[in-house]
Specification:
Layout: E1 7-11, H1 16-26, E2 32-34, H2 46-53, E3 58-61, H3 69-74, H4 76-96, E4 101-105, H5 134-154, E5 158-163, E6 165-167, H6 180-194, E7 198-202, E8 208-213, H7 214-227, E9 234-236, E10 241-243, H8 244-255, E11 260-264, H9 292-306
Parallel strand pairs: 1-2, 1-3, 3-4, 4-5, 5-9, 6-8, 7-11
Antiparallel strand pairs: 8-10
Helix pairs in contact: 1-7, 2-4, 4-5, 6-8, 6-9, 8-9
């Protein structure tokens, strides 16, 4: 898929990841990049979806209602319904309107709670996802089934990507819906500025995650759009496993906070461990470039200047 002179629609293009995907797309010189804004386009409605994708060559579906564990648990039914229906209706509308390629962005939350490390794509169906994020994981996971079914019956070119936890400048730092890294940065820097001697952090710190800098993620998505065509979902990650405790201590060091961490073990850790097998993404030329400490420093610097 040569993106030059193509009309590309990016749902969620005004969001955190979307802004970086659009910048990456611009390097390919598409004819037009279209961003259906949330307030004007209800993507749960097929009529609206058909209007959005009419005359479009490529759809990159980033739009999602998502946040951290606490946010998902508070509105789990809404999270499942809105994300599932958006994806299903948008893919069907894209098929009906003759879109040439549909790129659905899934989530590492699709994997079973207990998955052998590193997570290989073949393990996706070996168990139920972690309960705390399962509504979001399942809402995205059904798009794999839809994409495969459409490919088989209609020859529809749909691919599904599985990014790990993303972070970087311009992330969502809202304390009610932020993911782990922006939530930690916000909490630690606010504690530093108040002169606190300690900072309270959810969980035990022992759970591990894999993190991907947002610019790397955007580059991987655009590379896959150009160079990958197949029914199997593909992991996008750094391949590096890091404990939440190490992430928190690195943020403390970089932000020059002098206090200590107090772990709130009454709060959930979520999935115990995460690390992806990223070998399949190398087939279309993707490899993460930004290491965690470098990425955290860039994110902290941006937050300090823009909060």
């Amino acid at each position: 898929m040569n993106l030059k002179n193509k009309r590309v629609l990016v749902t969620g293009g005004a969001g955190f990841l979307g802004k970086y995907v659009i910048e990456e797309l611009k390097k390919r010189k598409p004819k037009e990049i279209i961003v259906p804004l949330h307030g004007k386009f209800d993507l749960r409605n097929r009529v609206v979806c058909k209007k959005a994708v009419k005359g479009v060559d490529v759809v990159i579906h980033l739009a999602a209602q998502i946040g951290g564990i606490g946010f998902i648990n508070g509105i789990s039914g809404e999270i499942f319904y809105n994300n599932a229906v958006m994806g299903i209706e948008l893919m069907e509308a894209s098929r009906q309107e003759g879109v040439k390629k549909f790129v659905s962005i899934g989530t590492v939350c699709e994997y079973p709670r207990i998955t052998p490390l590193p997570f290989e794509e073949k393990y996706l169906w070996d168990g139920y996802p972690e309960e705390t994020t399962a509504p979001y994981g399942w809402a995205k996971k059904i798009l794999i089934v839809q994409g495969r079914a459409y490919r088989k019956q209609y020859g529809f070119d749909s691919i599904h990507l599985l990014p790990v936890n993303l972070y970087g400048p311009k992330d969502n730092f809202n304390k009610k819906s932020a993911h782990v890294i922006p939530a930690l940065i916000k909490r630690i820097i606010e504690s530093r500025d108040r002169g606190d001697k300690k900072v309270l952090v959810w969980g035990s710190g022992k759970a591990t995650r894999e993190f991907l800098y947002v610019e790397d993620a955007a580059r991987g998505i655009v590379l896959a759009t150009e160079k990958y065509d197949g029914p199997c979902p593909i992991n996008l990650g750094s391949g590096v496993e890091t404990s939440i405790e190490k992430v928190a201590k690195t943020i403390i060091k970089l932000s020059k906070f002098k206090g200590k961490i107090v772990w709130d073990k009454t709060k959930p850790d979520g999935q115990p461990r995460r690390r992806l097998d990223v070998s399949k993404a190398k087939q279309f030329g993707f490899k993460a470039r930004v290491g965690l400490e470098e990425g955290l420093k860039k994110t902290i610097d941006w937050y300090e200047k823009n909060r």
